[in-house]
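New here. Your pick:
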Amino acid sequence: MVVKMSKQDVMAQSYELLNMMVMLTLIGMVFSIFIALSISSRITEPISELTQEVSRIGRGNYDTAVPETYLTYNNEIGVLATNVESMRLSISEYIEDIEDNSKGLEHLVEERTSQLIQNKYVFRAKFS
């Protein structure tokens, strides 16, 4: 059995198949772009927020903690978030210690100054 088709019919079917392949390719590309953007935003969003947190720490704001959600990640983002939070807490503790020591030193200087002034008057009274 021989099927006879005109050249026009064959070409029409070929063009139809070509159009379908082009449409499927375009749909696949759009879907791939959507997936790529979704994955990239899941990676860049936490890094961007951690960058903002480090900037706040750099400006001296140690009150804002790293978002808890990033601390629970089981990947590099989680490690980075945990280390940034640890750094924030350590710096905050160091600053508190420095401020406490500074207040203690100020008090000590005031005491010593008062003693020197008293000794000055005692010395003048004895040798005047």
Summary: The mean pLDDT is 89. The radius of gyration is 37 Å.
